[in-house]
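Good morning,

Attaching, inline, the backbone tokens for the sequence recovery test we're adding to the shared suite. The designed sequence is right after.
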């Protein structure tokens, strides 16, 4: 099989990956706020929380809190605006609302905007 050189197909611009983990049903609001300030889209996957503060019960039966994990790749020039918008829309400065973090990306391909 012929080996393809894809190094020249990486985007030259710098990009960041914004990851936000929130309670179930909050992802749509977060994505809308991110798109309003320049994010092109994102990916949402589902998970469950197992942290120290994630213990709840219904009638004495333990319930695992459902989470939504949002991945948004943005141009580095838009990162701060998107993060600020997400923090404000999801009240991430309040305890128990969720957590977000940023990962600098070295190489990105497949984005066609």
């Amino acid at each position: 099989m012929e080996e393809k050189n894809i190094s020249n197909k990486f985007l030259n611009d710098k990009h960041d990956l914004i990851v936000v983990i929130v309670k179930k049903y909050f992802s749509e609001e977060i994505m809308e706020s991110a798109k309003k300030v320049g994010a092109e889209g994102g990916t949402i996957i589902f998970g469950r929380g197992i942290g120290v503060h994630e213990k709840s019960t219904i009638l004495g039966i333990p319930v695992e809190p459902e989470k939504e994990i949002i991945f948004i790749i943005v141009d580095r020039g838009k990162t701060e605006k998107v993060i600020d918008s997400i923090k404000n829309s999801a009240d991430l400065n309040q305890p128990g609302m969720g957590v977000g973090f940023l990962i600098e990306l070295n190489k990105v391909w497949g984005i066609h905007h």
